[in-house]
Amino acid sequence: MELRNHSLKLLSIQGKTKSPLRMIDCDRKMDKMANVTVLGSGTMGHGIAQIAAMAGFKVLLRDVEQRFLDSAMDKIKWSLNKMVEKNKLTKESFEQTLSRLEPVVDMKEGLKGADLVIEAVPEDLSLKRIVYKEVSSYADPKTIFASNTSTLPISEMADLTDRPGSFIGLHFFNPPQLMKLVEVIRGHKTDQSTVESLMTFVEALGKTPVLVQKDVAGFIVNRIFIPLVHEAVFCKERDGVTYEEIDAALKSKLGFPMGIFELADYTGLDVVNKASHEMHLRDDKVINPHPLIEKLFQEKKLGQKTGEGFYSYSSNKYERKDLVQADAEAFDPTVMLAVASNNAGWLLSNEVCAQSDLEKALRLGMGLKKDLLATAAEVGMKSIVEKLNEMSEKYGKFYAPGPYLLKFAG
Ligand code: 3HC
Among the three residues 212, 246, 267, which one is the final residue of a domain in this structure? Predict the structure, then answer.
C-alpha cells in the first residue's frame, strides 16, 4: 500500500471473500504497507488499532500513560483470542497481528512515518485542540488526519490543524472489531483525494464505508441512535413499562440486535451523554433531552463499564441481558419508530445521504435486521405521521413530522 499525493492506493489485496463466517484473512498481501497511528487507546482506539493491524497495517498505538496502553493491549488480546476461539482467526494470524502493533507514549515517536493518523481521544474540543496542535507540529506534511469523533464538527476540528484539506471524519462503531460500518465524513474543506483515499482505506480494513455528504450533528447513525435513548426513557415514563419490556419489543418488533437501553449501557452513558449535549448544541431539533441520562452520568452509572447504568452488570466485561420474548407484548414501539423515521427523513431531505446508504449504515452500524423505513412503511407512513402530530400537540414541536414524512400524509 502506498501513500502518494494523499492517495492511498491499494495494491493487490488478495484472498477477500464475502462470507461473514470466513476466517479473517490477516495476511492480505500489499506491495507496500501503510503506517497508521492511532491516538487514544480507549474503547474505540484499541479496537481501531486492532483491526488495522489485522488488515496488515503497521500500527503505532499512542496514549499518554503506559498503564492505558497495557490495558488496551490486554483487551486486544482478549478480542483476538475470542476470534481464534470462534475460528475466525488462526493462531498464526493472532501472533502476526500482535507483531504489527506497537504501543507508545511519546507523541513524536508515535507519529514517526505515519501515513494516516486516526485520532480517538476523549470527546472534548479543548483536549482535541491541544492534541491537533502537537500532531500538526510533528507529523509529516503528507500525513492525513482522521478523527473518530462521534459528534463534534469535523470542519471545526480541521481548522485546528495545519491541513484542513487532508482532514476527514472516520467514525467507527462499537465494537469496531465486529461492526462493519465506518462513516466517512467530509468537512467543508476536505479534498476529494482525501475522501477517495479514506474510502479505499476503510475497504482495506475489510469494512464498509458510507460517505456522509454533510457534516451534520450525529452524522447518520448517531442521529438515529442517540435521540432514541432519550425517547425510550420518555416512553418508559409515559407508558408505565419497564426497561426490559421496551428492549424486548425493540428486538422482536423493530429488528434491533440489542435493546436500546442495553445498547446505551454497552456504548457507555458518558459517551451517550456527551453526544447528546454536542448534538443538541449543534441542532436543538434533533434531540428531546431527558434529564435521566445526565443524572446517570453524574452518578457515574455509565453502563457496563461501571457495572451499572439502566441495568446492573456482574462485571465490566461484555455482558448481555436475558430479554424475554413475552415481555415484548407490553410495549408498542410505534412512537420510537416514528421518531427514528422522522430523523431518518431529515437526513434524506437534507441530502446528507441517499436512502440506500442510510439503510446500509443502520444495518451495519447498529445491526438493524430490517430496513428502518421499510418497517415504518409496514406500520403505515400515514399512521406514523398521525402519531407524530398527536405527540407534537401533547409534548411539543420536537415531534412535528418533517417534510420527508409529510409527503406521505395523504
Ligand atoms: N471482539 C471479539 N469478540 C467480541 C467482542 C470484541 N470486541 N465483543 C464481543 N465479542 C463476542 C462476545 O463475547 C460474544 O461471544 P460469546 O458468544 O463467546 O460470548 C460474541 O462476540 C457476540 O455474540 P452475542 O450472541 O452476544 O451477540 P450478537 O450476535 O447480538 O452480536 C453485536 C453482538 C455485534 C454487538 C450485536 O448485538 C450488535 O450489532 N449490537 C449493536 C451494536 C451497535 O449498535 N453498535 C453501535 C453503537 S453506536 C456507536 O458505537 C457510535 C458511537 O459514536 C456512540
Answer: 212
